[in-house]
Amino acid sequence: MNYLFALLAGLGFGAGLTISRMVDPLVVLAFLDIAGEWDPSLAFVMGGALLVFIPAYQLIERRMSKPLFEKSFFVPTTVTIDKRLISGAVIFGLGWGISGICPGPAIANVSGLETKVIGFIAAMFIGMIAANRLKNKG
Question: For residue 42, which of 31, 35, 91, 123 is within the disulfide window of CB 3.0 to 4.6 Å?
Answer without folding.
Answer: 31
